[in-house]
Structure formats: C-alpha cells, structure tokens
Write a structure and sequence with these properties.
Immunoglobulin-like, 4 helices, 17 strands, about 40% strand, WxLIP_PGBD, membrane
Length: about 350
C-alpha cells in the first residue's frame, strides 16, 4: 500500500510538470530574497515617480544609487544587474531590450551606453543592505527629449535553489532629460518598410514604423489592415487601443495572416492611429513574390507540423501517465477488497471455531 501511494504521488507530480511546463517558481520560505529602493539625488526631476527621472548636463557625470536589502535569514544571495533600452512593442506597450537593430537605426547614445553598473554582481549577506552605484555619463553634445530604459535587478541563476522556472526580478525605469519638460507629446511617425514574414511559426505582414523623435506617443487607437493594391476590401487586420510608441524607436508592427497561404501579388499596408492630439495615416505598397510566398508558406507549415507532433507526444505521455495512475488505483482497490475478504474469512473461521468449542462443552 505504502509503495503504491509513493508511486501515485510520483506520477502525479510528473503529470503536473508536463501539463504546466516551465512554471515560475520560488521557495515559499525564501520569498523573492531581496527588496530594492532607489535613492534619489538632487538631480531627480520628480521624486514621486517611483523610478529614476534625472536631469543631465552635457558631459557631466553623476551617480545613481540603489539600495538592495536581503530578506533571507540563512544564506547569501548574489544579485546581478542588466541595463536595457526602451523600445516599441507590436502589442502596444513599451518593451525593453538591447536589440542591436533598434540601436543601430534610431538610438544615438542609448541608456545602455550612458548608464553603467559599477559591478555586474554583488553578494549580500542575510538581512544586510548594500548600496549599488550606477555611473551616468551623458553625451557631451546636447540632446532633446528623453532617453528611456530600465535597470533589471535579479538574483543570479547560480544562486537559485530551484532548477525549474524563471527567477523573480525587479525592474526600475530610467529616464534622463536635459530640459525636464513633457516627453509624451511626440507627433511624427514614418512607415519605413513592409514585408511578409514568418515569426515564431506564424505568418505575418510586418510594417516597420519609426518614431524618430525622442518622445513617446501615447493612448493611440490603432487600426491597421492589408488590402490588395487598388482595392478596398480588408484581407487581414489588427486593431489595438491604448497603443504607445517608445521614444526614438523602430517598431515591427505585425498583422497576423492566420492559416491563409501567402499569394504572390501587389498589396497595400495601412496603419491608421489617432489620440486626442494627433492622427497618423501611413500607407505603403509592397510586393510578395511568388517564390517568397511558397517559401514562407512551407516554413510556417513545417512549424505547425512540428508543434502538432510535440502536442501529440505530450498528449500520448499524459494518456500513459493517467493510465498508470488508474491502474495503480485499481490495484489498490483490488488489494483493499482482498484484505477485506481475508478479514471476513478469518472472522468467519474464528466464529466457526467458537461454535465448535461451545458444542463440545
């Protein structure tokens, strides 16, 4: 019985692991392991922001201070730091990355260039505080608008006790400005290029949209679609509300093509966006060559087939595991019934002996 219960628990855990996949986990007794607090200098433009919003002067160095407090009782933790640039996301929010294409095309002196940690890692004793220093070195020449990014603070993967899932992390925004003026009033967008592509196994039409100004454009209502050239009927569309462009960023805006095959021909990409202050109507013709359409269709089909095979394997493994669990449960039930039957036979036998002794007396 005990052996079967152990096996049951083991298979149950394996089954959960397969179904849930890579789950973000952390030991409950440890919590996240540390907390962070920005320490603002006298160059902080607005101390109520909850992130670094710093005024700079050309070429004048300064320091950003960050308090890191260990919340563990029995172990040292190693915390590492990564600086990332703000960029526009096809989903309409501001994302963060060190995408070299975005840096090369539109970012001059990005946050990753002007903000550097003094050390990439720091070891913190239980319940102790460390003050981390980041050197901020603005460009020597004047810049307009803002530079935007973030500092990621995460426990080193070498320190984590659990081998499953992702580590928890904090992120603090960093914005630098010379003027300290409003930075959410961008008013220009350019449609640079349009192409058909396969992204993560999905057919899409990508529009490369540039925000050339060092300011955000926020709260946009986006209506985007593709037509055949010279026609009004929408073939595919993608509509998103509350869309935001990061400052000085190149966006790959995607219109999903679904299961429909690409066909060679002439098309037109439409990107319409508006908020309370600005409106944009970007239009660009593009061509899908027949050979490119065939190649992309095959590439997407291979990805779908691969995903399908993986799903079938996972389903088959789950079926096997469930069958094993059911077999163990049925075997347990059979053992329980057998024990009950043995007990009945024993009681019946003992009862018969009692009656026989009474008759002899």
């Amino acid at each position: 019985m005990k052996k079967s219960n152990v096996l049951f628990k083991l298979f149950f855990v394996i089954c959960l692991s397969l179904v849930l996949g890579n789950v973000k986990t952390i030991a409950a007794e440890d919590g996240i392991g540390f907390s962070v607090r920005p320490i603002y200098s006298d160059t902080q433009i607005d101390a109520e922001k909850g992130y670094y919003y710093v005024q700079t002067e050309p070429g004048k160095k300064q320091e950003l201070e960050l308090s890191i407090l260990s919340t563990t009782d029995d172990r040292d933790i190693t915390v590492e730091f990564i600086v990332e640039n703000a960029m526009s996301s096809t989903y309409g929010d501001i994302a963060y990355s060190n995408d070299p294409e975005n840096i090369a095309k539109v970012l001059k002196h990005p946050i990753t260039e002007i903000v550097k940690p003094r050390t990439e890692k720091v070891v913190i004793k239980p319940r102790q505080e460390e003050i981390m220093i980041f050197d901020l070195t603005p460009p020597k020449e004047h810049y307009e608008g803002v530079k935007m990014g973030r500092i990621v603070i995460a426990e080193s993967s070498d320190d984590k006790k659990t081998g499953v899932g992702e580590s928890y992390q904090y992120a603090l925004g960093v914005i630098t400005s010379e003027e300290g003026l409003a930075y959410n009033d961008g008013n220009k967008l350019d449609l640079e290029e349009v192409r058909a592509n396969v992204v993560s196994g999905t057919k899409v039409v990508e529009g490369f949209i540039l925000n050339p100004d060092p300011k955000t454009i926020e709260n946009l209502e986006v209506r985007s679609y593709v037509t055949e050239k010279g026609k009004a009927q929408k073939l595919k569309e993608n509509n998103i509300d509350n869309f935001t462009f990061a400052p000085s960023s190149l966006l790959k805006f995607e219109i999903p093509w679904g299961l429909t095959d690409f066909k060679g021909g002439e098309y037109t990409f439409h990107f319409e966006a508006k908020n309370q202050y600005e409106s944009f109507n970007l239009i660009k013709d593009f061509t899908i060559k027949k050979e490119d359409a065939n190649r992309l269709n095959k590439e997407a089909a291979f990805s779908v087939e691969t995903k399908t095979i993986v799903k079938i394997i996972i389903i088959a493994l789950n079926v096997v595991l469930v069958s094993l669990i059911i077999t163990i449960l049925m075997r347990d039930r059979k053992w329980i019934d057998e024990l009950k039957n043995r007990k009945r036979r024993k009681n019946k036998k003992n009862g018969s002996r009692g009656k026989g002794k009474k008759g002899i007396n």
